[in-house]
Amino acid sequence: MRLNCEDLNQIADVRVYVNDVLESSVYNNGRIYFPSRGISNRRIFLDCYGFAELSITLILVDGQECTLNSEYLPILVRREELNNSVEAMARFVYNNQEWLLLNGEIKPKKPSGLKENGYRSLATQILLAEEIAAIYESSYGYFKANSRFKLEKMSVIERLERIQYVTQGTLSYTATHPEYLRQVNSTQGIFIGNRVYQPQKTETVQNTRSYDIYENRVILAFLRNMIDSVQSLQGYCCNLLSKIPNDEDYSSEYIYSSFFMFSETRKMIEDGKTQLEKLSEKFTYLWGMYSDILRIPLDQHIVPPRPTAIFLSVPQYNRIFVRIHQWFSFGIYNFSKEHFMLSFIKISALYESYLLAKFLCYFRDRGYSLESSRRCVYPVSKRWKYKNTSVRNTFVLKNGQKRITLYYQPVIFDTDQRSVNGIGLYRNNSISVYAGNEDDCRQGGHYYVPDFLIKIEENGDSRYMIVDAKFSDYSSVRRYYVKDLVFKYLFSISPIEENELVCGLCIMYGKCKSKERLQTAYDKQILGTEIYPFIEIFPLIEGIDSAGQYEKMDRLLKKLL
């Protein structure tokens, strides 16, 4: 890599980061070299997937620093088994992210199970809209023949023989419309001279049906509201689809790796858009049908209706009344799931969310119930690099006497901070894990943030396992990451109380193939012995060795029990 600068002599050194990871580099007269770490032609983007951000910090001779950041660079890959696994992983996160967005509540399978402010998705929104359309369709016959109405007296012009009684208006109309008078051979009528006249037509008052009542206004206005809501959702889908990589944007050999990260999201939005298009047509058709039979002005200000006697006592009206309230309680879907998925610029973030959802599903399937979940905001300094998560990061599960707390991106401070989130660990030294990691040195070595922390409590004792996620392969994990992670999380973290213990470290990696085993980092272990703290290297990705995933996780958790 070569730097172009007006005065290279002002640059003393540089630091290069790829996706916030410091890369080993050497600076010499405007050029940056990446020395080999056991492999020829050091490739700094080797473990990148999705997008990569390149950051270069220039250290000037006067001690000042200047950081340059690239835009996110798309990573191209060949089609292979790994890409299918990434796609399956994204699908798993998409379908299980309620763990992250809510209090661990599982989304209802039917709209009738929806609760106010409960879990929402595009699919549940569409299901509810389809139920509403179905109710309007099945009720059309009733409303055509039996819509509720009110009687109104209306002045009408009728033939004389159809008039049942004479009003003052009848007399006034006859007197002012002589063109309708006809001479008749009768003794009854209007005598003009010795001739008798009767009007052919005149005015009278009749009771007529008017469908312009409150309930019918609501019925019709809500149909109009459904057309607008569905079309609004359609527009949102189109907007999101324009931002998602398409599988057509690739050469014959390479494809954007981000396509596999977002493919499930694209598929779900495309399916939703198709369903919404059909619903828009259906509601427009229903609007025309109901407008024809009710013939009332449109009420533009639709709000949740009040419970009138008609809405409560007439079944056909009540069915629609209930669905209207349900729709307003549910609210218009805000595409939180889709935005959450599209936030994964870097594969590492997607992999971490995948592991979080996988852990929670595993504990649930092994008989643990979710006791609580919350988003803990850690009291960190503004100058620290760590940023609090935007999702829930603390999950408490229970099975009998065992309590498991799963922490996502917990902060382990260099002081006793148990009151913050119940973590009985602290960082015991300020030594930087990397000799050149200036960020950690500048921050004084105050904290560590592992990807996950699992705490098991039983009989008054607490045991911890630290979990780190690497979207890398086994060889890279063992060669480049193990020693640094061991120093950080096993040598530099200690329990506060005697009844607490850090049992080990698990490094989970996602670039794995079928039949890769859970392995210990101790390759010189005497048979029949157990080494603590343990160091496990765990292959885990969706779509590969699915049957063996839980078996491996069982073996891992046994080391804590």
Task: Describe the protein in words.
37% of the residues lie in helices and 24% in strands. The chain is of the alpha+beta class and 561 residues long. It folds into four domains: 8-74, no CATH class; 98-148 and 212-337, no CATH class; 150-210, no CATH class; 346-558. An eight-stranded mixed sheet has the order 16-17-18-22-23-25-27-26, sandwiched between helices. Strands 2-1-6-7 form a four-stranded antiparallel sheet, with no helix packed on it. Helix 3 runs antiparallel to helix 8 (315-330). Residues 102-118 and 435-439 have low confidence and may be disordered.
Considering the chains and any ligands shown, give keywords for the structure.
561 residues, alpha+beta, 4 domains, eight-stranded mixed sheet, four-stranded antiparallel sheet, 14 helices, 37% helix, 24% strand, elongated
Summary of the model, kept short:
The chain is of the alpha+beta class.
Number of alpha- plus pi-helical segments: 14
What overall form do the CA principal axes indicate? elongated
Sheet/helix structural class: alpha+beta
Task: Report the count of strand segments.
Answer: 27
Q: Main β-sheet, in a few words? A: 8 strands, mixed
Low-confidence stretches: 102-118, 435-439
What is the fold's blueprint, element by element?
Layout: E1 11-18, E2 21-23, E3 26-28, E4 31-33, E5 51-52, E6 54-60, E7 65-69, E8 73-74, E9 76-77, H1 81-96, H2 98-101, H3 122-146, E10 150-159, H4 168-176, E11 181-183, E12 190-192, E13 195-199, E14 201-210, H5 214-241, E15 255-256, H6 258-294, H7 309-313, H8 315-330, H9 336-342, H10 347-365, E16 369-374, E17 394-399, E18 402-408, E19 412-413, H11 418-421, E20 425-427, H12 438-442, E21 447-448, E22 452-458, E23 461-470, H13 474-491, E24 493-495, E25 500-509, E26 519-520, E27 534-539, H14 546-558
Parallel strand pairs: 23-25, 25-27
Antiparallel strand pairs: 1-2, 1-6, 3-4, 5-8, 6-7, 9-15, 10-14, 11-13, 12-13, 16-17, 17-18, 18-22, 19-21, 20-24, 22-23, 26-27
Helix pairs in contact: 1-6, 1-10, 3-6, 3-8, 5-6
